[in-house]
Design a protein that fits this description.
about 475 residues; three-stranded parallel sheet; 22 helices; 3 strands; mainly alpha
Length: about 475
């Protein structure tokens, strides 16, 4: 009887996680061609363009294609391989399908990690939160490094938590290998040294301390070297590119596409962005509240070994990323599954009536938000619609003014005289003279996005005239 009940519970769990994965897949694979193959995300265009230029066996070095490439090379090779296997399919769509698969894997790993640390119910609820989280659904529609990076980070944390509890050498090897793959996507995951170091320090002592450390570090180095050989072969170039991107992220190097973050508050801005857009207010408040609750509990009583591993990633990563000048919401993607776990833990510790109401409320809000978000993919991208309007309205040879550092429209500018307004230039009489000259000769002015006015209108000290 007990055995049949156990089987029944296991069947119920796997049915629920399968249902969650099906729902997550539907949200992630729906509308992959959301921009008609345009490649509207600038990072995605960059990554896909470099990957498409790689060729076996004579052109495998990404620096031969893009000398300033600063991301890890693993996503490039994955897309190049997948593209070669899917001959005749648009490489952009192949990449987005890969990203959707990676994020689907993140949902599964969230369940596995939460179940190991906090139990099955927390695992199922946390996986549901990630499955419905708009930030994950959105990033699954771009082939950028963020979704694969998050997948490998969670794998590293899963095996690090096992290492902390078991002390097995196999877990040390696997934790290191997954961390090396995460590092092969983006170097900011070097912070994984903290949870892996915590796991190695607090694990039950089965062997000499140095042996698991060597295995973990060796596996990480091997995984990185195998997936980023040209980063090691061209180490000065790799470090130069990393240093440049680090300076941009910290605000030490001024570039137009990060000026939108001028005047934004460290920590507060990225958290509010998650509450407004990424998670939604209901899930976001529960998730960050869950993190605060877990820290409070850790202060009051020593956490279990696996809990230390999660905190050793969540707190340093939030402290580091939240302090950056550049605060793109996707930078927190490697943290959001842990926030979902902490939020699920918090809700399941509430009293029964409150627990049921809160879970239903958060899941309902998250489902409605994700459905509303994917509904956007039913309509043509605004740039496609704007271009079609211009094709119908603008005479051949018409002069079209577009903003500097934004996507030029119409998309096919053949037969049009497209001029660029230098809005990001410093405020000088020459700048305004050039703008006045262009506008005087222009038939149509195109503002493709908020990149220009959204950033410069909030910086009157530097752009007094433009801000007006």
């Amino acid at each position: 009887m007990i055995e049949s009940l156990a089987v029944s519970e296991a069947t119920k769990t796997w049915f629920l996680i399968s249902l969650l994965l099906f729902l997550a897949a539907a949200l992630r694979f729906y509308g992959l061609d959301w921009d008609g193959g345009l490649g509207a995300h600038p990072d995605e265009r960059y990554v896909v363009g470099v990957a498409e230029s790689l060729r076996w066996p004579d052109r495998l070095n990404p620096f031969d294609v893009a000398p300033d490439y600063a991301y890890g090379h693993l996503p490039l090779y994955l897309l190049a391989l997948a593209g070669s296997l899917a001959q005749g399919t648009d490489c952009l769509l192949v990449g987005r399908a890969l990203t959707a698969l990676f994020d689907l894997g993140t949902v599964a790993l969230t369940f596995a990690l939460a179940r190991r640390v906090y139990g099955e119910k927390v695992g199922l609820l946390a996986a549901a939160f990630v499955a419905l989280m708009v930030s994950h659904v959105q990033q699954a529609h771009f082939y950028t490094v963020d979704a694969p990076l998050t997948f490998f980070v969670l794998g590293a944390l899963l095996f690090a938590s096992r290492l902390a509890e078991s002390g097995r050498s196999r877990d040390a090897l696997l934790a290191g290998a997954w961390a090396g793959l995460a590092l092969g996507c983006k170097f900011s995951t070097a912070l994984l040294i903290l949870p892996l170091g915590a796991a190695l320090t607090i694990r039950p002592s089965r062997q000499a301390r140095g042996l698991p450390l060597l295995r973990c570090g060796g596996a990480a180095l091997a995984a990185f070297a195998l997936t980023n050989p040209f980063a090691l072969a061209n180490l000065p170039v790799f470090w130069r590119n990393l240093a440049q991107q680090a300076n941009i992220a910290r605000g030490l190097l001024d570039v137009p596409y990060t000026r939108q973050f001028h005047g934004t508050w460290p920590y507060l801005y990225p958290i509010v962005q998650q509450l407004r857009w990424g998670m939604g207010w209901a899930l976001g408040l529960v998730a960050f509240g869950g993190l605060a609750y877990s820290v409070w509990r850790a202060v009051r009583e020593p956490p279990r070994r696996a809990e230390w591993v999660l905190l050793a990633w969540a707190l340093p990563y939030l402290a580091f990323t939240g302090a950056l000048y550049v605060k793109f919401p996707r930078y927190l993607l490697p943290l959001t599954p842990l926030l979902a776990i902490y939020g699920a833990r918090l809700l399941l510790r509430a009293s029964a009536p409150l627990r049921r109401c809160a879970i239903v409320l958060v899941l309902t809000c998250s489902l409605l938000r994700s459905l509303a978000f994917v509904n956007l993919y039913r309509s043509p991208h605004p740039w496609l619609a704007a271009s079609e309007w211009l094709y119908e309205q603008a005479e051949p040879g018409a002069a079209v003014a577009v903003e500097q550092w934004d996507h030029p429209l119409p998309l096919d500018a053949t037969g049009y005289n497209v001029r660029e307004l230098p809005i990001f230039d410093e405020e000088t009489p020459e700048k305004w003279g050039e703008i006045a000259e262009i506008l005087a000769q222009t038939d149509y002015v195109v503002i493709a996005s908020r990149r220009g006015y959204g950033a410069l209108a909030r910086w009157p000290e530097r752009y007094p005239s433009t801000a007006r």
